[in-house]
Amino acid sequence: MPKEFSRSRRIGTVIQRELSDIISRELTWTQFGMLTVSAVDVSPDLQQAKIYITRLGEHKSTPEAVIQGLTQRAGHLRHELSQRLNIRGTPRLYFVYDHSVEYGNRLSQLIDSANKKNTDTNSEEAS
Length: 127
What we know:
By secondary structure, the chain is of the alpha+beta class. It has helices at 7-26, 29-32, 63-72, 74-84, 100-126; strands at 34-42, 48-56, 92-97. It has a single domain (7-98), classed as GMP Synthetase, Chain A, domain 3. The chain is built from five helices and three strands.
């Protein structure tokens, strides 16, 4: 029977917290904008970590450019992470852009728009 909170999930939580701190200190806003580590999935053998990145605000660089830039810095970020973690081997870092925040914002805008149209229609009928 699997454990409720496995070792890979615990390590993923620590990696998320530490990597968020490293990224906020090491990378400037002008490079990629304000980056957030939204989730981390660590493989069961602790050899690989998939890092989900979101970006707040509007920026000139594309999500693909952000992932490419982070991938180029993956070795350095892994080294910095290894200095903070108390585990035998630091997982290889793979970055993935998480579109869920943008998707959620878009859905929120659609709902607000639909509610506004509904309110406008109801006020016209009442007149």
